[in-house]
Design brief:
- The protein has 225 residues and is an alpha/beta fold.
- It is 32% helix and 19% strand.
- The chain has a six-stranded parallel sheet with strand order 3-2-1-7-8-9, sandwiched between helices. It has a three-stranded antiparallel sheet with strand order 5-4-6.
- The chain binds ligand BV8.
- The site of ligand BV8 has 36 residues, from loops.
- Its main location: cytoplasm.
- It is an enzyme of class 2 (transferase).
- It is found in: Cytoplasm.
Length: 225
């Protein structure tokens, strides 16, 4: 059986009630990403950034995985060790649907990070700038999230997976944020068949051999099953 690499974006969690970023009334239409998703924004106003992520963490904790997350977990069980999920999402809906080995390129809402010593721990429901680091005691706690201008996580694992993939599938990703937006090109150049599953064609649609449009909860199970 071939190796499948699946990239997921906010669109796979949209029908679980978690907002996307660039759709109508998406997060970036209500917040200035420079204020809440960059290191400079955090340095300027850490309380605002914590509030932004505290609200999203609370949302994510009440959300439920949907039929698309569950279908991917079924696919992984059917082909053990052959199906990799790389997600731009910071929620844990893939894990709660039963997926394993999920690579969170942009970090996780459930993670806290000390900006001073690098210590990581599980985030409390609500984080605050004055929270002391459990390791060094400094009050430089931040969400364990990859902001614009920061280096995404797991790249050393992802590049080889893209080169080895027989099939690359992008689900609910607008193809607007790099390096994830270039993954279809990377995989396609190495010989993978590239499939896009989305509510509408993404900015990187030309990089795909095949595009199926519709809501993730319909087109992902239809593809998997
Ligand atoms: C970096 C934080 C150096 C977490 C986010 C070229 C090469 C490399 C970098 C760059 C480059 N050009 C510019 C850059 C810099 C920058 C960048 O890409 N800027 C953009 C704006 C041009 N990139 C970076 O800074 C990255 N770091 O580059 O390091 C480097 C260089 C080379 C190689 C390696 C490293 C860091 C980027 C990470 C930023 N952090 N978020 C958080 O708060 O969540 S990004 C932000 O956008 C979100 O995290 C999200 O993950 C990401 C992408 O959004 P999508 O998931 O696609 O969501 P979106 O709303 O955009 O789209 C929704 C999609 O779903 C749509 O397609 C819609 O049709 C679909 N949909 C909606 N409903 C449904 C649906 N589909 C199906 N069913 C539905 N029901």
């Amino acid at each position: 059986m071939e190796t499948i690499v699946i990239l997921t974006g906010a669109g796979i969690s949209a029908e679980s009630g978690l907002g996307t970023f660039r759709d109508k009334d998406g997060l970036w239409t209500r917040y200035d990403l420079n204020e809440v998703a960059t290191p400079d924004g955090f340095a300027r106003n850490p309380a605002l950034v914590h509030e932004f992520y505290n609200a999203r963490r609370a949302n994510a904790r009440t959300a439920k995985p949907n039929a698309a997350h569950e279908a991917l977990a079924r696919l992984q069980r059917a082909w053990p060790g052959k199906v990799w999920i790389v997600t731009q999402n910071v929620d844990d809906l893939h894990e709660r649907a039963g997926s394993t080995g999920v690579l969170h390129l942009h970090g996780v809402l459930e993670g806290a990070l000390c900006a001073r010593c690098g210590q990581r721990w599980s985030a409390p429901a609500r984080m605050h700038p004055a929270d002391p680091c459990p390791a060094c005691g400094e009050a430089q706690t931040r969400p364990d999230i990859v902001w614009f201008g920061e280096y995404p996580y797991h790249m050393a694992e992802i590049w080889p997976l893209l080169r080895a993939a027989d099939l690359f599938v992008a689900i609910g990703s607008s193809g607007t944020v790099y390096p994830a937006a270039a993954f279809a090109q990377d995989a396609g150049r190495a010989g993978a068949h590239c499939l896009e599953l989305n509510a509408e064609a993404s900015a990187t649609a030309p990089d795909f051999d095949e595009i199926r449009l519709g809501p993730a909860t319909q087109i992902v199970p239809a593809w998997v099953d």
